[in-house]
Amino acid sequence: MTDDRSALSREDVIHVARLARLDLSDEEVELFTAQLRTVLDHADDVASLDLSHLEPSSHPIALANVLRPDEPRPSLDRAEVLAVAPSVEDHRFRVPRIGGEAL
Amino acid sequence: MTPTAVSLAAEVRAGQRSARDVVDEALATVDAGDGQYHAFLSLMPDEARAAADAVDAAVAAGRDPGPLAGVPVALKDNLCTRGAVTTCGSRILEGWRPPYDATVVTALRRSGAIALGKANMDEFAMGSSTENSAFGATRNPRDITKVPGGSSGGSAAAVAAGFTPLGIGSDTGGSIRQPAALCGVVGMKPTYGRVSRYGLVAFASSLDQIGPFATTVEDAALLFDVLAGHDPLDSTSLPSQPEATVATVHDGVEGVRVGLCRDLVDGCSPDVVARVREAADALAGAGAKVEEVSVPEFGYGLSAYYLIAPAEASSNLARYDGVRYGLRVNAEDVAAMNTATRTAGFGAEVKRRIMLGTYALSAGYYDAYYAQAQRVRTLVMQAFDRAYSSYDVLLGATAPTTAFDVGAKVDDPMAMYMNDVCTIPSNLSGHPALSVPFGGGEDGLPVGVQVLAPALQEALLFRVAQVIEDGAP
């Protein structure tokens, strides 16, 4: 696993940006590659520790599922919610076509 | 000198001064003075005056107007305010009016406090200088050539400038405590789960916590008591009922075991180290037992944080897709619209963190980075437990230096991240911690001393901080 670290390349940055739905200019790819490499280099101090004896902690407190009675109650006002939407049609969020579908 | 929240609320509650008068004066003061600081992104004059009138009506009718009656508060702009613009300092939420209030906003209203406006912040709370706001930086009221710290720099500056006695911020890696230190005010991060996060726009959900800014420890305790409590709308909200802290603020530190933590002062500038040691002396003089302690595991906190927080952020910020609210940049299909919207709507630091987090979570790197960072989190939590078996509180610096020059670190993310090195451990562990002003640095700018305590020990935290405040030069 240690071989994978700090090998962040331009291609990695382009790939990650695509996963995150971000478009980067060539200059941004250069800049972000250098900057993210610096952060990941700093993270080498923890990536190289042997902590195999410890369990990972996702939260500071133990989380328990929270349940409530399944009873109808008021929720957000539809008109108020749709009033701040970028595009609305027929009481729904309107979006451009999805993938190659013809709508 | 602006009056404290305690004295202002007492006047309003006694009918000696109307809340409306307090609010009108506060709005006028911001109008006249905020051009040079840019603490606020927007004001809520109509809502504030209506809330003030409600307080005055309660007083006139002989009803209890609440413990913070008529006290103006600056809200960080990542707290949802129904019908009032909430931007998180981001173009992607420019002009967005939430359809609901954050639980803390409701709690403030019930307490008689008046939300005066929305305070500037680093975009989505990512930053340590409030220079990452899409709507322009905030300046430090103590010296406008300096940053106020961040990410809650607007709330800290509003309190430091005397615009509002109280402010609310959020603290994911130090975003309340560090700006409090740099602006010379009190700032406190409660125990994770003690204050509801419902209506706080999420950055890193396992680290985020809402907390108070004030000019005095007692005011901070009063505001914390209003904010704290169980909320069924937040699944991480602690079910236990909090105890009031304000009543015991002045109880002193006789017999309290204080660990002066070398790892939270090493590497700080000499003037900051000197102030922390003097604060320790003040505690010893008041009867605390002070010893030096080393918790070397804290040294790994920064690296772990800058993997965990971006990983959670990359997931949380996936919701900004241009579909339901906020910015939309049109394109031929949904995927292209998502990309165009996010590319135009997010600033550079937010993009950096989203990419860093996406990378840390991606196939092939998950174990090396994200899972490993979570193990470091366990390591830090165990180190805290060990320290707290010998000490009741820990003491250290809040920030490595006093406020730095505007522009000094914007092009060097790692240098900016280093500001959080002393504050991050308490976010990883979920423990409460606060920053209290204690004298100045060689440049005359404020120094903050940080007090850290075990989970749910907020009352003790405030008691210790009060002694430091009383002993400040």
Q: How would you describe this structure in keywords?
A:
heterodimer, A: 103 residues, mainly alpha, Histone, subunit A, two-stranded antiparallel ribbon, B: 473 residues, alpha/beta, Amidase signature (AS) enzymes, D-Maltodextrin-Binding Protein, domain 2, 11-stranded mixed β-sheet, 15 helices, 38% helix, globular
Structural notes for this entry:
The complex is a heterodimer of chains A (103) and B (473). The model of chain A is unreliable at 1-5 (pLDDT under 50). Chain A has a domain at 1-48: Histone, subunit A (Orthogonal Bundle), CATH 1.10.20. Chain A has four helices and two strands. In chain A, strands 1-2 form a two-stranded antiparallel sheet. In chain A, helix 1 crosses helix 2. Chain A is mainly alpha-helical. By secondary structure, chain B is α/β, with parallel strands linked by helices. Chain B folds into three domains: 5-243, Amidase signature (AS) domain (Amidase signature (AS) enzymes, Alpha-Beta Complex), CATH 3.90.1300.10; 257-299 and 379-471, D-Maltodextrin-Binding Protein, domain 2, CATH 3.40.190; 303-367, no CATH class. Helices cover 38% and strands 12% of the residues of chain B. Chain B is built from 15 helices and eleven strands. Chain B has helices at residues 5-13, 19-33, 45-60, 103-110, 153-160, 177-183, 217-227, 270-285, 301-316, 334-345, 348-361, 366-388, 413-417, 424-429, 458-471; strands at 40-43, 72-76, 114-119, 166-170, 186-189, 210-214, 257-261, 289-293, 393-397, 433-440, 446-452. Chain B has an eleven-stranded mixed beta sheet, with helices on both faces. In chain B, a hairpin with a 5-residue loop joins strand 10 and strand 11. In chain B, helix 2 runs antiparallel to helix 3 (45-60). The model of chain B has no long low-confidence stretch (mean pLDDT 97). Chains A and B meet through helix 1, helix 2 and helix 3 of A and helix 9, helix 10, helix 11, helix 12 and helix 13 of B.
